[in-house]
Amino acid sequence: MRIHSQLNVYKSRLDHNIKLISEVSGNKKMIPMLKAEAYGHGVLGIIDFLEDYKSQVSYIGVASLAEAQYIKFSLSKKTFPIFVFSELGDLEENQSFYTDYGIYPVISSIADLKIYLGNNDLVKIPLVLKINTGMNRLGIPSNEVETVINLLKENDVSEINHLMSHYSSSYLADEKTSEQKNIFEKTLSEFKNSNISIDEFSIDNSGSLENDLSLNSATHIRPGLVLYGANSSFNSSKNLNTKIISDFETEIIKVIEVKAGETYGYGNTKIKFDGSLLILPLGYGDGISTGYSGLDFKIGEVSAQVFGRVNMDLTALFSKETSLSHFKGKKVKIWNENSLSINKISRHLKTHPYEVFCMLSSRLPRVYHLE
After folding, report:
1. Is 95:123 a contact under the CB 8 Å cutoff?
2. How far apart are CA 47 and CA 30, in angstroms?
3. What is the dihedral of CA 120, 122, 124, 125, to 10 degrees?
4. Residue 197 has what DSSP assignment?
5. pTM recorded for the entire structure
């Protein structure tokens, strides 16, 4: 654990984001995506924040059965039902978790659907089906819907509790998104025309909400990155004015005055100018990638850049300013509530905010603020 570095997570900012997401979606029910430790923010803390939204949040989503088990076994109180989206495990081997704990598998293959339908215990839990409309990753291919319908009828099942699909590029607002939407709507009609009722259905994610591409008839939305305040699309047509729900904060633990020609750290990086090195107690062991090298920061009125090789435990900032010994103990924010701060890091790393958030390690304390 760290002493001088932490991730401060604010409920008031999450509240702000949920309100905006609700407005833009027409107040649809939500399935917040909390996989990968709630995108690095700590899943148990975020669930605690979501307790105020039980009328709006129908389920929460995770990637793996193990994530769902961790949530259920870590909380003494009853929490939201959980959708497991990808790593289901063996359905029959793990059936007690699915039947006894409010954990529901998102069935994405004909093989798993057959297991579900052939198991007297599993068939008692809600049937959640995923259709592949063009993501081409998980999901029953849309051209196999007739096979699904026949299987359901053969097993006297006339109801799908939740039908879903997944956009591949809604953050780009491209033609593929419209194509997928049309395929999904056609799939809905195929089931209904075959007298298979569908209680709930969803396809919208962060990108479709940002780009005003929502499927208006859907009963639910599945916000992921936008819930945490970052943009899945840097050039979205609809600026939601969300807030990053966390401040990643650290403290300068040492100041070293340096001269041009000296070297620093692993690899003996040469110092080109007189100035100061400001040492931060963060490294790739906490989620600061080696790719942060060269990234600009502002500490009050002083400009500094990540210098040399980021190592496991420490990162140096270089400033051309001298006589900065009084900076020891000063706070430095890696990012704040402004989405531009995380976008700047993402662009520098040539990645996206999903990865920046998820790089945060368990060594970094998460502190949850109710205000």
Report:
1. no
2. 13
3. 180
4. E
5. 0.94
